[in-house]
Amino acid sequence: MLDENKETVRPEIELILALSRLKFEAGTIERCRDIIRDNDATIDWGYFFDQSGRNKVLPLVSHNIISHRLFYNEEGISAIPYFHVYAAIYAGNVRRNALCADEFGGVIARLNAAGVPYCVRKGPVLVDAYYKDYGLRWIGDLDILVDKRDLEKVGEVLRSQGYQQGRVTPDGKGIKPFKRSTEIFWSMHLNNAPPYMKPATSLEVEGGFQVDLCHDIFQRRLGGGGSVSTADLLSRRIEMRLYGQPSYALAVDDQFLDLCMHFHKEATARYYIESHNSLQLRKLLDIAESCKEVMRRGGWDGIVARARTCNMLNSLYYALHYTSLVYPEAVPPQVVAEIKPEDCSFIDEYGAVDGKTALWDQGPLARMFGQQHVNRGDVRGTVPRI
């Protein structure tokens, strides 16, 4: 894993990488036991916990620790301190996502009643398709793709459900509207409307309920889109049941390319780098599981052809390149070789979305599991914080 970057792998990171999987190959759990045993005196469990959280795999890692009883060694002595915390993380996430399902199911029902064409993106669709367990993946919000002409109509639906555009107040009981300048910036420069928020009465939903409206999945500065419009994507949508409601998702090929484009954007945009939300392990796991689904459904020809139509080959290559470093078993090398562009310099760049490109001076492992890069002044973005 990641050996092409010549980066030293700490035992804590090796353990996180091994446990960040939905299914294990033969010998993986024993390898985890070896890592824990061989580094018993030096492993930093605080660092392990922190980095699992930063990479948004803590619920999955917690589940795998508990379900495989990695917290005891062969002599029955505690090998991982405070193991009950990991059980609580998983159980708490089950409860949290069930509350989100109840809330967002109501939103979907109202959208259906309003007759607005839409697609649900990312988290809820991935949990339903691959994770199959509310507790394994933290769901932050409800991402919805709509035509730009329908933004206000969807906004009316959300406001009728108690949502407002703004941020939850520090006491968690109200919504503070965004500054007018922030709203104008988002409307002029971004593919998303400012998020709609609703306070939550439950402690498990720490930041309130959030709905994000996207009117274009393509990032033009990354080369995506071409002649493909949101209306085209919505015309190809598929039916699926989400949160107990009949709903819609992007066509399978479009879902996959949406994940790749979204990863490329967040891994390189200053807005996400500055907020510790850029190159993260869970995003790579999402892509890896989607890669496996591509193979189950018959192969890569349709994905590659659709990427050419959408002018997304660079983003597809970017996503598969980074995913193959951590989950090589999920990414066919012949596909990566087929779509590899002549100029691959963008692999080590960031800031293209901001219109100010620079080169990383750290490898992907340091960026995923370190903090130094987010403290440098040159990653400051121009997008107003929300």
**Pattern of helices and strands:** HHHHHEHEHEEHEEHEEHHHHHHEEH
Biggest beta-sheet profile = 6 strands, mixed
What is the helix tally?
A: 16
Question: In which range does the helix fraction lie?
Answer: 40-55%
In the predicted model, the low-confidence regions spanning at least 5 consecutive residues are: 372-377
Strand content: 5-15%
Tally of DSSP β-strands: 10
Radius of gyration computed on alpha carbons? 21 Å
**If strands are numbered along the chain, what order do they take across the biggest sheet?**
1-2-6-5-3-4
What does this protein structure show overall?
With 386 residues, the protein is of the alpha+beta class. It has 16 helices and ten strands. It has a six-stranded mixed sheet with strand order 1-2-6-5-3-4. The protein has a two-stranded antiparallel ribbon with strand order 7-8. The protein starts with 10 loop residues before the first helix and ends in a 17-residue tail after the last helix. Mean pLDDT is 90; it is low at 372-377.
Give a short synopsis of this structure.
This protein has helices at 11-19, 28-38, 45-54, 58-67, 83-114, 123-131, 151-160, 180-189, 230-235, 252-268, 270-274, 281-296, 301-309, 313-326, 333-339, 364-369, and strands spanning 118-121, 142-146, 164-168, 175-177, 196-198, 209-214, 238-242, 245-249, 349-350, 358-359. It has 386 residues and is an alpha+beta fold.
